[in-house]
Design goal:
Number of helices: 19
Distance between the termini: 22 Å
Shape: globular
Helix content: 25-40%
Structural class: alpha+beta
Strand content: 5-15%
Largest sheet: 3 strands, antiparallel
Length: 534
Amino acid sequence: MSGSETWVTASQEYMFARRWPRALAGLLLLAIVLTGIAGLAVGIAVLVSLSRSDRPHYADAVEHFKYGSIGSEPSSGLPAKLWHALPYLIPEAFGESRDYSVFGFLYENDAGRGKHALPIGLGSRVESGVELVWLNCAVCHTGTVTDATGKRRIISGMPANNLDLYRFFVFLLSLSKDARIGDIDQVEQAIQASGDGLGWIEKQVWRFVVLPQVREQLIMTATAVLPLLEAQSPWGPGRVDTFNPYKLLHLRGSLSDLDPAEVAAASDFPSIFLQGPREGMQLHWDGNNRSLAERNLSAALGAGVTPETVDIAAIERVADWLMDLPPPPSPALAAGNRPDPRVLAQGKQLYAEVCFACHGGRSNAIDQKGRYPGDPYDFGGRLVGTVTPIHEVGTDPGRLDSYTADFAQDQRQFFADTPYQFKHFEKTDGYANHPLDGLWLRAPYLHNGSVPTLADLLDPPEARPRAFIRGIDKIDTLKGGFEAPPCEPQAQPRAERGYCFDTSLPGNSNGGHLWGTDLPPDDKAALRAYLLTF
């Protein structure tokens, strides 16, 4: 749960979810009439089946985070059989992978059962007898790290550094113009290729109800959102435009309603470790809300829930688990990796002078072996969780400008006349000072992910990389962050792994945040060594 909404929903889509059971019942009653008494028993059995609604329950909180439903499926989801069939129905979009890893979704291997059927970040539930799947909190907040030995770890709570939502959404919305999505015979063949099937009655339901509803939903969403996506530069992996699609879908706006300054607003997915100490801080990148509960519910709206379909209990279960979820320790603290304790002590002192007031830091002293006994995070810097005005921080204004005072007012109408009505959203004048727990997992840096490493962040803006590859998850143990080789945007907008991020594009500026940039080289090295341990 965070400020990184993935949207792709519209409140009007709930009308389709509510129409499904009525349309299915009407179709089946007609079948009963046509087949006579002999078909009555079969028809009743099918109607009972199609009246079923259910969702899986996960006893383990981590599994619930990864695969549990938060209520997005009835309003925004795809039928599970169609989800699994799309790699076979639209093979050119998936290549040899035949799964959604092509868009950066992550799959786990279940012990003894092979690859999990759904990627992390997709929940499922049965509505009107049809299993639906769609996004949950984990899709934006689960990432990977590859260490020097080549071992890859999946880490819950870190930013989704592989996920390319822009490409996924463009693909999905392009289906609104693809005749294959409405051809029951082609869809059935793809479902069979994926290892499933449709019975005769189920095929008629899909022919006359399911596929028309899916196409109608895709057309409505594409009409609202595709013009925005086409006006933007691709976000690249690990980023999302948080609020602009919100405006077009939930508030029935159009691209022409947006001020040009609002359009280029993609920002990084944040980490979501240790949420408890953040209650009362100014949350989201621009600090537009101080309530964890409202921030979480806003993120759930972005993931596809509506006020009618939201599963409050499921969201609160995730929120409770995140209250004290610690980040995994930095590899810089592992035996054999620790820098000279004297360098760390120098870095700690510099951090206290330059960084602590805004970001907090470690509360324990470093022992002579470079260890941090207990190693709690100190959230008590006097400016932690407050907003630094844009004229002081100097970073790219796109994300700040996208969240307007008018939109803040509109948001306060969400969940009206319920205990969950938004009350705390507000327009700010800058970006929030966030704690740095789990910093080693949060590259690239700044709110828009425009600076690849800690070493680059300590350089003046003119010395920072102009363009670099995003989406590589191999740790850069020297510079801090992930490996990010330089690239040429015009020559290689998509690399073999990752995406060529161009800082010259609107919304992508790597300027600002000048703290520490004027330090001597030895001091920068010491400060970076200390930051590597966060």
